[in-house]
Write a structure and sequence with these properties.
0% of the residues lie in helices and 47% in strands. It has no helices and eleven strands. A hairpin with a 7-residue loop joins β5 and β6. The protein is globular.
Length: 122
């Protein structure tokens, strides 16, 4: 059974930085594409960033975060990361790591962790 556990969320001021982590277990992490999705208050899940399982890994970002967020993975630690720089109030959301069935597509049925809350406010 795939298990995902996010951490690293919190309150951050606009323009600040944050690193989210997702510890995985129960599957061969290196073979799977992974992604971060988020749910802003009162809105649907939306794609944030993804990284493929093949080597060399390819990344893809939502337009709203491109150039500010960086997705990466540590194959020795079976952990996925999201480095968030120059955050903005509109980045406020619950963030989830996920194993997407279709890369680049948000599906509410995809396996997700419990999430970690990011709040951007001064």
């Amino acid at each position: 059974e795939k298990r995902l556990e996010e951490s690293g969320g919190g309150l951050v001021e606009p323009g600040g930085s944050l690193r989210l982590s997702c510890k995985t277990s129960g599957f061969v992490f290196r073979f799977y594409s992974m992604a971060w999705v988020r749910r802003p208050p009162g809105k649907n899940l939306e794609w944030v960033a993804g990284i493929t399982g093949r080597s060399p890994a390819e990344t893809r970002y939502a337009d709203a975060v491109n150039g500010r967020f960086t997705i990466s993975k540590d194959l020795e630690k079976d952990t996925l990361y999201l480095d968030m720089d120059n955050v903005m109030p509109e980045d406020t959301a619950m963030y989830y790591c996920t194993v997407p069935n279709v890369f680049g597509i948000v599906n509410t049925n995809d396996k997700r962790g419990p999430g970690t809350q990011v709040t951007v406010s001064s």
